[in-house]
Write a structure and sequence with these properties.
688 residues; Maltoporin, Chain A; 22-stranded antiparallel barrel; 5-stranded mixed β-sheet; 56% strand
Length: 688
């Protein structure tokens, strides 16, 4: 028997070796092995939550140029095209009034992308991996706080990169297309002595953004340096080291405009003044993330392993500008800056305590720090310490039953202590049919800014203030799932019926009275119910189809504090903005997830070695923030690829079209909307 963690560590090698000979097979194969739910390698039929697995061939076939676009294929997930705001990736529509989504944990080879600088969320502009280096993505659709902490409130996106041992030689590639698309990638790998390997990727990407509409402009540029080294120190010890840096520059700002007393279709129209908005002038939003990670794995015995991982990351950002009306000491505005740092060390031990039973347990210690001259004025560097322990166990007494139990305890120096748990069991009615039932309780804590903000525009005027008494959001989720794996028909079906009760949902930029500063409060309770499924079929050897849908319904109610702030004060003009905008807050809660969303991916091998793929998406109306919404839309992306060997030279020529069916809105609609129009490019890759 191979050691448990050794098998887990080698899973990327196994799956990449498989995809190297038949890339498209993994996504459409019989239900694969996953390790992102309990942190034990398990068949999907044994895992305690629903998982969508996306392999390299699927990423390429989707026509995605940005990683955030890939999650359009996952039932229940939402995203939008990048513009002057970074894209977001949400699950079941639970979002905030800022551009960094904080409720789905995102990992790259075990390293969390959550940043103390970016409101405790993920900045999808600074994705630290090229699409070409992703071996597979495991998307856990359901709460996983027990395995990954408070950020895994609604789910987990676990990105596993290509093992350096499988990369040889040089690869050069580029994209050239309309809307200023200019991308260049250099990738190389090889051996280091007798027992080491490395993989290095350098990438530059840029575009002119979306078509300018009315009063705003945007353009984007990204750079990436990513180095991964594997060293086999001994027969029992392996060391994995990763070093990298991601940079991004976005143009931000808008032209000043005023409303004029002309009402068209029920809306008072805006007109430009022809000058920059002094509160939002045009400037570059500079962002960067630098990281190092070391992961040591030791085989203790045939049935036990120990791993230790250390991560250090530094995130910096600035979209500073001078707002002249403010006093000189307060007019340098930089709401996203300045710098955030994270140190984390995690140890994990896995073993077999008894026949039919597997157990993995561990703990982590993390220190986050953030400095912001604007949002944390006069506070200097604010530190935050988080310590957690967790355990997950699997019990499989026979071929008919699998039980999973998980528990964690997390202490946060700003948010206090929170235990979390999960229990599920799977009944394998036949080898091809499994029914799973499960329950989980999870907690999500706020960002450091949420607790400690001190945004002043004069010595006495506070614009935004943290809430040190903010309670944690709580999630109680139930699910009933069915998995079908019909190999004779080359078909599989994964369904999930869910009920998620979210208590004390946070709402930001709320003031208790007109004279009070903005703050964050727990004001809403949500009940999210629905059904989602993904179906895969290979009708012929050269044809593959993947289809997914999600049906989500959200109802909201007020917490006791929400009821207080929703009550008008005797002096009406002094009431909370939460009271004055109740209708918008209800819509934000109940329409943040589209009632129905669908995705279709069709892959077809054509004569002469050509590869054709089509991805089609349909999304009903969605509201991203209190002031941004979009009507239903559909989108079609198409890719045609030609892998070739010419004079001994291997490579691929490709042509990709996004939004083939024309312009539409995905994030903001109306006169100040963000219109997504047809984008197309030619790609060429040469392997040496």
């Amino acid at each position: 028997m191979k050691p448990l963690v050794t098998r887990f560590f080698l899973l990327p090698v196994v799956f990449f070796s498989f995809s190297a000979t038949a890339d498209e097979e993994l996504f459409f194969s019989d239900l694969p092995v996953v390790a992102s739910v309990s942190r034990l390698p398990q068949r999907l039929a044994d895992a305690p939550s629903s998982v969508t697995v996306i392999d390299r061939a699927t990423i390429k076939a989707s026509g995605a140029r940005a990683l955030s676009d890939v999650f359009r294929l996952v039932p229940g997930f939402q995203t939008f095209a990048k513009s002057d705001a970074a894209p977001r990736v949400n699950y079941h529509g639970v979002s905030d009034d800022n551009e960094f989504a904080p409720r789905v944990q995102v990992l790259v080879d075990g390293r969390s992308l959550y940043s103390p600088l970016f409101r405790g969320g993920v900045n999808w502009t600074l994705v630290p991996v090229a699409l070409e280096d992703i071996e597979r993505i495991e998307v856990v659709r359901g709460s996983n706080t027990t395995s990954y902490g408070a950020n895994a409130f609604l789910g987990v996106i676990n990105i596993i990169t290509v093992d350096p041992a499988l990369v040889r030689g040089f690869s050069v590639g580029g994209n050239y297309g309309n809307q200023g698309v200019r991308d260049y990638t250099l990738r190389t790998g090889g051996g280091l002595g007798e027992s080491g390997h490395f993989r290095l990727t350098v990438q530059n990407m840029r575009d002119d953004g979306l078509d300018d509409n009315f009063d705003w402009e945007d353009r984007n540029a990204n750079r990436l340096f990513d180095l991964r080294v594997n060293l086999q120190l001994s027969a029992r010890d392996a060391l994995d080291i990763q070093v990298g840096r991601a940079e991004g520059v976005q143009l931000r700002g808008s032209y000043d405009s005023v409303r004029i007393p002309v009402v068209i279709d029920g809306e008072t129209q805006r007109r430009l003044l022809g000058v920059e908005d002094p509160e939002d002038p045009f400037r570059d939003f500079d962002q960067s993330s630098t990281w190092i990670q070391a992961h040591w794995l030791r085989t203790l015995s045939d049935t036990a392993d120990l791993s230790v991982r250390y991560t250090h990351s530094v995130d910096r950002a600035s979209d500073a500008f001078i707002f002249a009306p403010l006093p000189a000491a307060y007019n340098d505005i930089n709401e996203v800056g300045d710098v955030g740092r994270r140190h984390e060390i995690e140890a994990i031990h896995s073993f077999l305590p008894a026949s039919g039973t597997r157990l993995i347990w561990g703990g982590s210690v993390r220190r986050d720090s953030i400095r912001s001259a604007t949002l944390l004025r006069d506070l200097g560097t604010v530190n935050r310490d988080v310590r957690r322990v967790f355990a997950n166990g699997e019990w499989k007494p026979n071929a008919l039953f699998t039980g999973n139990l998980g528990w964690s305890y997390e202490y946060d120096s700003l948010a206090g202590s929170h235990p979390a748990g999960r229990v599920s069991f799977s009944l394998h009615v036949t080898p091809q049919n499994t029914i799973r039932m499960g329950y989980a309780r999870a907690w999500r804590t706020g960002s450091t800014i949420d607790y400690r903000a001190n945004y002043r525009v004069t010595p006495t005027v506070v614009v935004a203030q943290g809430n040190p008494n903010l309670p944690a959001e709580r999630l109680d989720s139930w699910e009933l799932a069915y998995l079908g794996d019909w190999r004779d028909w080359r078909m599989s079906l994964d369904t999930r019926l869910f009920r998620e009760k979210l208590t004390d949902r946070y709402l930001d930029k709320v003031n208790a009275t007109d004279d009070a500063p903005d703050s964050i409060y727990a004001l809403q309770n949500l009940l999210i119910q629905g059904f989602e499924y993904q179906w895969k079929w290979q009708p012929f050897e050269s044809s593959r189809i993947a289809f997914g849908q999600a049906f989500v319904n959200t109802d909201s109610s007020l917490t006791s504090l929400g009821q207080v702030l929703a009550t008008p004060l005797p002096v009406l003009g002094d009431s909370s903005n939460f009271y004055r905008n109740q209708a918008d807050y209800v819509l934000l809660a109940e329409k943040a997830a589209p009632r129905r969303s669908s995705s279709l991916l069709f892959m077809q091998r054509l004569p002469y070695g050509l590869e054709f793929s089509l991805a089609h998406y349909r999304v009903s109306a969605i509201k991203w923030t209190r002031n941004t919404d979009v009507n239903k839309y559909h989108r079609t992306d198409v890719r045609l690829g030609y892998p070739f060997v010419l004079g001994g030279q291997r490579g691929e020529l490709g042509y990709t079209v996004q939004s083939l069916d024309g312009a539409h809105f995905e994030q903001r609609e109306g006169q100040r909307g963000r219109e997504v129009d047809r984008r197309q490019w030619i790609s060429l890759r040469l392997d040496f």
